[in-house]
Fold each of these.
Amino acid sequence: MKVILVEDEAIAAARLQDMLQTIDSSIAVQAILPSVRETIEWLMANPTPDAGFFDIQLADDHSFEIFRNYKVDFPVVFTTAFDDYLLEAFEYHSVHYLLKPLVPEKVRRAVTKIRQLREVWTAKVLQELVREQPNPSSPRRRFVLRKGQEYVPVQTEDIAYFYT
């Protein structure tokens, strides 16, 4: 799983990165982003991560500004020392809300929840693909492909090759 950490405190970011690596060594932290501006720039220039861990209060503004200025379409876990933002957090793709100081068991639960949601979403897409193909022996007219965090239909004649 590829994740980003939006955290302006270097020690907190390093601690969370260590926890994630301890929970699952296949979790790759793609970037540690300390500000709203840098996060938006990174999101615009890079492939969509599988998830993000966002501190709410950053040095330059609240991380909610990221969501107001960029369409975040991946699961988000908010990490903060304050419970004041709990309700607002769930307006922005939040799947979990962790209060600092972070403890490994709660971070593990958040990672598990992200994985479970991804499995359910993938299963639903596969069910839709099967339902769309009533006769398995007939050639496919289109495929549903993953593009970032979303799935898009592509006509067979528009496909040159698949690469993963």
Amino acid sequence: MDTIITAIATLAAAYFGALFAFKFQERNEDRKIKASNIAAGNRAMFLLLRQFNELSVVKKQIIDPHREHPAKFVVMRPSLPLNYENLRVEVNSLSFLLETKHRQILMDLLIEENRFHTALQTVNERSKLHLQEVQPILEKAGIVEGGDYSLQQLEEALGNRLFIQISRATDEMLDHVDSGIKSLLEMGDKLYEALRDLYPGETFIQYKAT
């Protein structure tokens, strides 16, 4: 009888020991997954913050100083080529969102990424046109920076085609940069709230318009 009791006790100890080890390993894996997801969420928030900052710099330094100027298409200076191909969503690390009620967030992030790069493209295209075509023609016509010229004088100097082209390129830049900044703010709020809902009590990056 004592032998049977000892055997049962040994088996029970082995079983519960294995069960404890399994549960411990399972909890450890859960903690790792949670930490990985939180880190991925914060990287995504930081990505949005960087995109928001880049467009805000364009708005502050190029657009806003001359936004209301009737000849803004000329007086808004061009920028150096903007290339932020490294600002891309880490799709794989955020795939955990697909298993939650916030699965649409991942698609929204990809849409936002495309909107950001489209805005940069309009800045680059307008800058290239300004540097390579508009400025040389204005210089030949004797039109200097800081001078006071009518729209008619500028159109006569540039010609109707280029006058319309640079005007449209400038309007497109304003539209994409302004709407991109607004959309990035909204996307930041949406992702922040989703992450807080999934991992309450954890700390996540948040940004606001200044």
Amino acid sequence: PENDQGRTDLISVIQKYVDEHFSDPDFSLERLGNDLKYNKKYLSTVFKRHVGVGIVDYLHTVRIQHACTMLKQGFTSVSDVSLRCGYPDSQYFSKVFKQAEGITPSEYIKNIAEQSS
């Protein structure tokens, strides 16, 4: 059995992996498990127990945070931001974005434009 330090290190490794691979539309727990040489179910369980959210939810959070950063930096193409954040389907991206931010990416862009004028 792993000690707490081992689990903490594993959580850091998972977070780093997600941070480095979030833009990959083919990101999967399967590949995460293979790359880290752990069972995906084990990774999922440990991560959720220690972080409070599942790996996929964490992935969405990282992607949406990155999208917000890009939009604040002046990116105005929702489909471009969507692709760069790992969502090949911009409609799905807009849905996930709205769930996270309470507004659509287009409304987010509009708000930024209004604040800067």
Amino acid sequence: MRNALSLLFVAGLAFLLFVIAAGLDFGAAPMLVGQGINQASPGQVGAANIVTSVVLGYRALDTLGELAILFAAATAGGLMLGRPRADARRDPEAGFILLTAADLLFPLLLVVGLFIIVHGHLTPGGGFQGGVILAAAFFLPLLARPGTHFNHPGFAVVEGLAGAAFIVIGLLGLARGGEFLMPLLGQGVMGSLLSAGTLPLLYIAVGLKVGTELAGLMAHIAEYEAVDP
């Protein structure tokens, strides 16, 4: 009976997908909203990367929600971790290859992460992608040298300031009589680094917040014992 019900569900799902696909006009984009954004974004936002216009402009409030979800997830992960035990044994340092690679990759990952964040309004990338790379840059030395001091208070300060900057920039748009997170400071010349108004500043705030949150969470995982159930 269970197998029959599973086959019936799969057959119904396949039929539904077939009906939906049969009604699509392949070769023509059915999303009128997407077409409207592609046409209006260059003049309204001025970002060469249309995805950035959507993430930080047309649906920026959703992006703020995503940051809140990431903060809640990182906080919950930290609460699930216990305190470091005084008698806990530390893993030995890695070998020569990993130690050397960590020293060489740390500045490289920093540069690449910051580059992706700063150029998010021009090329594919942005604050979320660049923030993950920054987190990896700070976590790599912890893997190579277990027990390395991680400045949790300093990272928490940067995280808080980045989140506050994102919200303040959004409120400035409201204060100017527009919408929340409305691009300010002018559009500039599309394709140049100083363009798209406040969108690059928003991506810098997003990148710093994502990077510090993930780096702090991974450092907690590396340093702390899990709480016994």
